Amino acid sequence: MRIPKTTLEQWRVLQAIVECGSYAQAAEVLHRSQSSVSYAVARLQEQVGVELLAIEGRKARLTGNGKVLLRNAMGLLDEAQRLEQLAQSLGRGREAEVRLVVDVAFPTALLLEALTRFTQVAEGTRVQLTEVVLSGADEALLDQSADIVIGTYVPAGYLSNVLLDVEFVAVAHPSHPLHRLDRTLTADDLRRYMQIVIRDSGKTHPRDAGWLGSTQRWTVTSMETSLSMVDAALGFAWLPRHILQKRLEQGSLWPLPLDEGQVRRAPLYLTFACAGQAGPATLQLASLVEDVAKAAT
């Protein structure tokens, strides 16, 4: 294994000289003697084989080569600082990673807000995010492949909190034949046309959800694909209002005028895989998710 000739400390000294403008001020900031600062930079220039600094009057400025090398070294210094922060977090019992499994029905905007807040307090903890449909969330709990699960069902033996209710609306493109009937629709009307449904991502005990009475049915794996198909007037579907809202307001999709069942609601629960063993980062992320969900209701 090849060992680098230079050290992070040498690059940190160079950075301080550039930021402070002189050797003397850098020495004061670093709490070192000016001679040790001068020696560190001289040794660094000798090891890399190029001139890094040029002195103009009392000011030290980077040469062209110095700018290129210091710019790359800054990334190493930042990584080293993050590594030290991670080590400190781990030393306090904080997890290196939190595994978050989320049903695709959970509003993306709320998820992003919670994750954005978490990045501000993460202290180096990574998040492994997996999106699932229906029983995929249950399986993540049962096989312990997640730390936090947001899903539509709570398996026996687990306790959870309700985050929010997701409202699903039956919709179709304005040109769809169902809208041309120009009357209140029944289940018999729906059975004659294509329904777009999202496949359960679970493998062990997949389950169906919602009305599945249509004799014609296309099954897709994502909410986005379902929405695109409805946009293209290929069929009708029940989709979360939060992803439909803009289209409903613009009139590019219309709610189906059903005599019953036009809107259905599904609760989303937050469940810990091992509630009594959840670490500080897991608890922190869960709390942030609950905060943003509560603010949205």
Helix content: 40-55%
Number of strands: 11
The Rg value, from CA coordinates, equals 29 Å
Which CATH C-level class of the largest domain is it? Alpha Beta
Question: Layout of SSEs?
Answer:
Elements: H1 8-20, H2 23-30, H3 34-48, E1 53-56, E2 59-62, H4 64-91, E3 97-103, H5 108-119, E4 126-132, H6 135-142, E5 148-151, E6 160-172, H7 177-180, H8 187-190, E7 195-198, E8 217-220, H9 223-231, E9 237-240, H10 241-250, E10 254-255, E11 263-272, H11 280-296
Parallel strand pairs: 3-4, 3-5, 7-8
Antiparallel strand pairs: 1-2, 5-11, 6-9, 6-10, 6-11
Helix pairs in contact: 1-2, 1-3, 1-4, 2-3, 5-11
Question: Top keywords for this entry?
Answer:
single chain, 297 residues, alpha/beta, Arc Repressor Mutant, subunit A, D-Maltodextrin-Binding Protein, domain 2, 2 domains, 7-stranded mixed sheet, two-stranded antiparallel ribbon, 11 helices, elongated
Overview of this protein structure:
With 297 residues, this protein is α/β, with parallel strands linked by helices. It folds into two domains: 8-91, Arc Repressor Mutant, subunit A (Orthogonal Bundle), CATH 1.10.10; 95-297, D-Maltodextrin-Binding Protein, domain 2. The protein contains eleven helices and eleven strands. The protein has helices at residues 8-20, 23-30, 34-48, 64-91, 108-119, 135-142, 177-180, 187-190, 223-231, 241-250, 280-296; strands at 53-56, 59-62, 97-103, 126-132, 148-151, 160-172, 195-198, 217-220, 237-240, 254-255, 263-272. The strands form three sheets. Strands 3, 4, 5, 6, 9, 10 and 11 form a seven-stranded mixed beta sheet that branches. β3 (97-103), α5 and β4 form a beta-alpha-beta unit. α1 packs across α4.
